[in-house]
Design goal:
The structure holds two protein chains of two kinds. Chain A is α+β, with helices and mostly antiparallel strands. Chain A has three domains: 206 residues, 3-Layer(aba) Sandwich (Rossmann fold); 79 residues, Elongation Factor Tu (Ef-tu), domain 3; 112 residues, Beta Barrel (Elongation Factor Tu (Ef-tu), domain 3). Helix content of chain A is 18%, strand content 35%. In chain A, the strands form four sheets. In chain A, strands 7, 8, 9, 11, 12, 13, 15 and 16 form an eight-stranded antiparallel beta sheet that branches. In chain A, strands 2-3-1-4-5-6 form a six-stranded mixed beta sheet, sandwiched between helices. A six-stranded antiparallel β-barrel of chain A has the order 17-21-19-18-22-23. In chain A, helix 6 links the parallel strand 5 and strand 6. The longest helix of chain A is centred in the middle third of the chain and has 17 residues. Chain A starts with 7 loop residues before the first strand and ends with a strand. Chain B is of the alpha/beta class. Chain B contains nine helices and ten strands. The longest helix of chain B is centred in the N-terminal third of the chain and has 19 residues. The two termini of chain B are 37 Å apart. Classes of the chains: A alpha+beta, B alpha/beta. The complex binds guanosine-5'-triphosphate (GTP) and magnesium ion. Guanosine-5'-triphosphate (GTP) binds next to helix 1 of chain A. Guanosine-5'-triphosphate binds next to helix 1 of chain A.
């Protein structure tokens, strides 16, 4: 059975409303012939019915009725594409500030941000907000599609202005790779097909840049982490602990600590789908047996050193999505971190991040879609790493106790790129 | 820093392992967080894969939830036989909710014997969810199937009327799936969200997942209607001017027998199906689902009403 194994790149589109993210993805998929014939026919028919030309490429991903009526993306669309060299998981995110929570949803699992910037409009506040959120979420590889080059007669100076502005911000935000491409998503220049309109540009097309990106290869500095999801009872009275391995691979014989209890033991056996393994790779939903019989359960965490810390107090960065502001007297909240959920209180609101200046300024409350620094106190101890060390043990969400709605994305620690002004 | 979901860039974990692990993770997470899950089982390939994954997620114990089949009454006999066999193999408790009962009780109008009952299923499904106090229903839907599904969360919230509101989906960050709801509300959980049709078939091949025979090429009397090949049988009769032909076909999806088309195919083995799917230029619903052709947003509209 030839099952070609291709490495996967997860990307999210980011950038301000109308800068051309959906058109760019539509163009990418259409020009690589990765849209099914019937889907393309349906896009053409919908374009005609709505009087937006022969083929509105944004309709490839803007699939909801309201999106097509308003010509705007409301929620993330996921598309799966296989190029000759790799698999792409594409999250086409909305640009409108009102739907920032959906952009964060799409970016939280991305390895790379495909940034669309309208060359005529330049770097807008909303683009900055998206770049800051992507950076907070740990997305450090950027491909910048400087779009709508057709509207500035392919002006090299206009292109370079955007590249300089985005590049400067990306450097401050700690991006590890930034590739800029002058494109016209509408006309298909430099997306899949190389354009003849910019003889001064010798770099890759958007597709080439995606195929060449090594964004999937994250450096890892922490140990292995297995947050216990579920206890499986094995024949003969044994128990094994199921969870998804993060950080580093886990091996039979590894010395581990069960947290928050702090019990030291080692890995006796690893299984996957009933099969015994010597090693569980990162991302495997394995189950493990420990040498020490303990009463470990859901919410506990098995770790190798360097160990995460156990705490009831968190310094964290949050993106607030609730309809009502976040303040110290607000609604009752719950925090979900790995497989543990606990009541939580906001101890202190240390400030709001201004996405323009990257300064933290005093704030009594965070409005919808604002980003701030908080101190939280949880009812139960959590086992955490800084988000920068481990995306799994460093992330949490806040949940409204009454409605069960998810109202914030949280990251343990503070972003290095903000300065606190008092 | 650790790469996230599905981290198939990790050496040692191939694409199918990553998809499978993510699905096992979702299954376990929902079972841990919700009180009364069920697994929606249509007898199609996606639900067969889902059931296979569910059995894996909780082995060596049995399934910690029952399996619910919404029976339109318009079934392919091979699929009903498969349903019973598949549920028995994993020792699942099978609940059957019948659209016919909804019709008999006056919950939905009787569209007539030969009309599609696809849309009516939503009422039967929501009634069953209410009757059994279900707060989480696993489904085999994939985002590559349809443009509305492409927008849906892995855990998708349904209000007390069973409705999906695509404008007000809960944020879903990282893999922190959050399934709690108030009484009367529920979530749909889609462990196969990130799988494509080709992934499903490659996985079926790798794991030897049992499927109904109609997924493989066979001879069958069909009529051409609405640009599809419909299987002539109890629920599809030739209309005036339609010619019944004997063709070698297979099904790419399994739904209400009145509205599910077959495709001409010589793919008799799993390997041949994988090759056929890899080369397909028409989507599976485009090739086989009559009811998705009538309006631009038919799937979105059905989903808003509580459809799978
Ligand atoms: N002239 C020109 N217009 C473009 C180009 N790319 C996109 N547009 C137009 O810009 C408008 C917005 O495009 P979209 O792709 O919907 O923008 P978006 O970034 O996805 O918008 P949101 O998702 O709502 O944030 C549409 O009218 C497009 O046709 C381009 O390269 N040149
Ligand atoms: Mg868009």
């Amino acid at each position: 059975m030839p099952v070609a194994t291709k490495d996967v790149l997860r990307l999210a589109t980011v950038g301000s409303v109308d800068d051309g993210k959906s058109t760019l993805i539509g163009r990418l998929l259409v020009d690589t012939r990765l849209v099914a014939d019937d889907h393309l026919d349906a896009v053409a028919a919908a374009s005609e019915r709505r009087g937006v030309g022969d083929l509105d490429l944004s309709f490839v991903t803007d699939g909801l009725r309201a999106e097509r009526e308003q010509g705007i993306t409301i929620d993330v669309a996921y598309r799966y594409a296989t190029t000759p060299t790799r698999k792409l998981v594409i999250a086409d995110c909305p640009g409108h500030v009102q739907y920032t929570r959906n952009m964060a949803t799409g970016s939280s699992t991305a390895d790379l941000a495909l940034v669309a910037v309208d060359v005529a409009a330049g770097l807008k506040e909303q683009t900055r907000r998206h770049l800051v959120i992507a950076a907070l979420l740990g997305v450090r590889a950027l491909i910048v599609a400087v779009n709508k080059m057709d509207t500035v007669e392919w002006s090299r100076a206009a292109y370079e202005r955007v590249v300089d502005d985005v590049g400067a911000l990306a450097r401050v935000l700690g991006a590890t790779s930034v590739v800029a491409v002058p494109v016209s998503a509408l006309h298909g220049d430099n997306v899949v097909e190389r354009s003849t309109r910019a003889p001064w540009y010798a770099g890759p097309t958007v597709l080439e840049a995606l195929e060449a990106s090594d964004a999937g290869a994250w450096e890892r500095s922490c140990g292995s982490r297995l947050p216990i999801q579920w206890v499986l009872r094995q024949g003969g009275g044994g128990r094994s602990y199921a969870g998804l391995v993060s950080g580093e691979a886990l091996r039979v014989g590894d010395a581990v600590t069960l947290l928050p209890a702090g019990i030291e033991t080692s890995i006796r056996a690893i299984r996957y789908g009933g099969r015994a393994l010597d090693e569980a790779a990162v991302g495997l939903a394995a189950d493990v047996e420990l040498d020490h019989e303990t009463d470990a359960g859901r919410g506990d965490l098995i770790a190798t050193s360097p160990l995460p810390r156990v705490t009831r107090e968190l310094e964290a960065t949050v993106c607030w999505f609730g309809d009502d502001p976040l303040d110290l007297r607000g609604r009752r909240l719950r925090l979900k971190h790995t497989s543990r959920t606990t009541p939580v209180r906001v101890r202190a609101l240390e400030g709001r991040i201004d996405v323009g200046s990257l300064e933290v300024t005093d704030a009594d409350a965070l409005a919808t879609n604002e980003i701030g620094l908080v101190r939280l106190a949880t009812a139960e101890p959590l086992v955490v790493d800084d988000y920068r060390e481990d995306r799994v043990t460093g992330s949490f969400v806040l949940v409204d106790e009454a409605t069960h709605a998810t109202v914030a994305a949280g990251m343990v620690g503070r972003p290095p790129f903000v300065t606190v002004r008092r | 820093m650790t790469a996230l979901a599905p981290p198939s860039t990790t050496p040692g974990l191939d694409h199918l392992d990553a998809l499978e692990s993510h699905a096992l993770f979702i299954l376990r997470e929902v079972v841990a967080e919700c009180e009364r899950p069920v697994l929606l089982f249509s007898g199609g390939k996606d639900s067969a894969v889902l059931l296979h994954l569910a059995a894996k997620a909780f082995a060596p114990q049995g399934l910690p939830f029952p399996v619910l089949h919404v029976d339109t009454g318009h079934n392919f006999p091979e699929v009903l036989a498969f349903r019973d066999r598949a549920a028995a193999r994993v020792g699942a408790r099978l609940i059957v909710a019948r659209v016919q009962d909804s019709i008999d009780r006056g919950r939905v109008p009787d569209p007539g014997d030969l009309a599609s009952r696809n849309r009516l299923q939503s009422v039967t499904l929501l009634d069953a969810i209410a009757e059994h106090g279900v707060d989480a229903a696993f489904g085999g839907a994939r985002r590559d199937e349809d443009k509305a599904r492409a927008k849906e969360r892995v855990l998708s919230f349904r209000d007390e009327f069973g409705q999906w509101d695509p404008r007000r989906q809960r944020p879903e960050l990282w893999r922190l799936y959050q399934g709690r709801v108030n009484p009367g509300e529920h979530v749909r959980a889609f462990p196969l969200s990130d799988w494509t049709e080709l992934d499903v078939w490659q996985y079926v091949a790798r794991e030897g997942v049992d499927l109904p025979s109609i997924y493989f090429a066979h001879e069958r009397p069909v009529v051409a209607r609405d640009g599809m090949w419909l299987a002539v049988g109890e629920f599809v009769r030739p209309r005036d001017g339609e010619r019944v032909e004997e063709r070698t076909v297979r099904f790419r999806t399994v739904g209400d027998a009145t509205g599910t088309g077959a495709v001409l195919s010589n793919a008799h083995t799993i390997e041949e199906v994988v090759a056929e799917v890899a080369a397909a230029t028409v989507s599976e619903r485009g090739a086989t689902r009559g009811d998705d052709r009538f309006s631009e947003t038919s799937m979105e509209d059905r989903k808003r009403e509580g459809y799978f």
